[in-house]
């Protein structure tokens, strides 16, 4: 069975119909031809956008000339209430300063330091699932819980059961359900003084989340000043000064960054893990291979990750088929010429991992689940040129290495103790909200081994 993907829309629809589809789910709003196109142009009365799939053009935008293609302010409109001026939304010198402070916390050596907290979160996820032996479970809720637990344990040295952590998790689930990926500002060029049309509920929930994060951040600042702070990611980031200016994050700036760590580190990991477990239910022979490999977890140390090779390849394949962030938008800061087409200044440049990862002119059997592809010549070539689960270039996700430890670790831990079975008639349909999720959840039967 081929893993599910959304049905594409007809090639031609009205602008009004396209905008409506786009707000509901940007994946099914796109025509099937994008899985073969090197580039496609879309026009609205307000702006022009170009979807770019050709690897050379993707490299130009993300790697060769990233300063000429900053993040689009249109997309950030929908996320601003929660993320403020986080590293995910900023551009230019502000973004570079933020990355100089944040990046050292996620260097290779720090991954080893965070591993015990990741493992503790994985073990806690196993304990929670034991209560559901034999049940049909909505697995996205379980992976969301596990991913949030990882974030709080590694960032603030507290488990998800901590009072404030539990409240953040609860409010964030509400925010994810309420917030469309785009609001009106993505379609209409609004002046800065005009209201951004966020719903009252969205604004209220975002304010509640930021208030809770502010409490955690202020408490940590006090612990740092008192010399009692634990040596975790929050402490590392809050005590790191910009090497060029000597300035550190203040509390407000740190709240912005923690918000994106939670969004990027929790929401995306939860999505990726849920789809991976669904694929394991769809392909039980792979599930059993990973369960066998997971016996290596008798080794409690970080070195066990080198023994989870199959788990890593399966997780990479799940990220290919269901990239948590399906599209990224940049803006042309000056006129360009792409594939003999004029790209005007201000045009939106859409980079779509969803389409690039399934591109029919690049990948062998692009819609098939095949973890062995990563050992083939085609897989290795596409892995270098057409695989963007964490973006690429200077703006590559700073937590990419973190995610590639967390995902295979939790996957292996769960498969060591449980079997996951597909529920007939309840196969998930992917849709894009904040990340690629299932329209009605991912329902699997959980059986303890």
Keywords:
449 residues; alpha+beta; three-stranded antiparallel sheet; 11 strands; globular
Give a quick summary of the entry.
Helix content is 48%, strand content 10%. The protein has 16 helices and eleven strands. The longest helix has 32 residues.
Q: Care to describe what's here?
A:
The chain has 449 residues and is an alpha+beta fold. It has 16 helices and eleven strands. The protein has a four-stranded mixed sheet with strand order 1-2-7-4. The model is unreliable at 180-197 (pLDDT under 50).
Shape: globular
Question: Which strand-content bin applies to the residues?
Answer: 5-15%
The gyration radius over C-alpha positions equals: 21 Å
Question: What is the typical, i.e. mean, pLDDT?
Answer: 87
Question: Could you estimate the helical fraction of the residues in percent?
Answer: 40-55%
What is the terminal separation in angstroms? 25 Å
Order of secondary-structure elements: HEEHHHHHEHHHHHHHEEEEHHHEEEE
Structural class: alpha+beta
Q: Which strand order do you get reading across the main beta sheet?
A: 1-2-7-4
Give the number of helices. 16
- Multimeric organization: single chain
Unreliable runs, pLDDT <50, ≥5 residues? 180-197
């Amino acid at each position: 069975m081929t893993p599910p993907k959304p049905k594409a829309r007809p090639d031609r629809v009205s602008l009004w119909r396209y905008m409506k589809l786009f707000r509901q789910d940007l994946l099914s709003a796109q025509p099937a031809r994008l899985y073969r196109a090197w580039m496609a142009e879309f026009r609205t009365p307000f702006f022009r956008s170009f979807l770019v799939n050709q690897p050379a053009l993707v490299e130009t935008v993300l790697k060769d000339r990233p300063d000429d293609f900053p993040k689009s302010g249109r997309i950030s409109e929908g996320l601003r209430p929660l993320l403020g001026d986080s590293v995910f939304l900023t551009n230019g010198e502000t973004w570079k300063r933020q990355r100089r402070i944040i990046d050292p916390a996620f260097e290779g050596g720090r991954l080893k330091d965070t591993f015990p907290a990741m493992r503790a979160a994985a073990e806690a996820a196993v304990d929670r699932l034991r209560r559901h032996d034999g049940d049909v479970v909505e697995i996205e809720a379980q992976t969301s819980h596990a991913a949030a637990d990882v974030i709080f344990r590694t960032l603030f040295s507290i488990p998800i059961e901590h009072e404030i952590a539990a409240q953040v998790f609860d409010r964030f689930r509400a925010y994810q359900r309420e917030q469309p990926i785009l609001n009106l500002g993505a379609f209409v060029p609004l002046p800065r003084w005009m209201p951004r049309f966020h719903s009252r509920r969205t604004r209220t929930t975002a304010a509640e989340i930021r208030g809770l994060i502010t409490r955690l951040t202020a408490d940590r600042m006090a612990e740092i000043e008192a010399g009692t702070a634990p040596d975790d990611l929050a402490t590392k980031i809050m005590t790191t000064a910009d090497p060029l200016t000597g300035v550190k994050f203040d509390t407000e700036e740190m709240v912005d960054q923690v918000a994106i760590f939670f969004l990027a580190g929790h929401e995306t990991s939860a999505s990726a893990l849920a789809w991976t477990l669904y694929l394991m239910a769809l392909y039980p022979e792979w599930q059993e291979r990973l369960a066998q490999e997971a016996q290596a977890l008798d080794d409690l140390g970080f070195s066990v990750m080198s023994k989870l090779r199959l788990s890593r390849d399966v997780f990479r394949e799940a990220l290919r088929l269901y990239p948590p962030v399906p599209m990224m938008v940049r803006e042309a800061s000056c006129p360009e010429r792409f594939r003999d087409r004029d790209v005007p200044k201000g045009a939106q440049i859409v980079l779509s991992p969803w389409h690039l990862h399934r591109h029919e002119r690049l990948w062998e059997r692009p819609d098939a689940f095949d973890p062995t592809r990563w050992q083939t010549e085609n897989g290795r070539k596409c892995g270098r040129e057409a695989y963007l689960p964490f973006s690429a270039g200077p703006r590559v996700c700073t937590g990419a290495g973190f995610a590639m430890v967390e995902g295979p670790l939790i996957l292996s831990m769960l498969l060591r103790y449980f079997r996951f079975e597909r529920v007939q008639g309840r196969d998930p349909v992917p849709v894009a909200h904040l990340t690629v999720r299932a329209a009605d959840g991912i329902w699997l039967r959980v059986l303890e081994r």
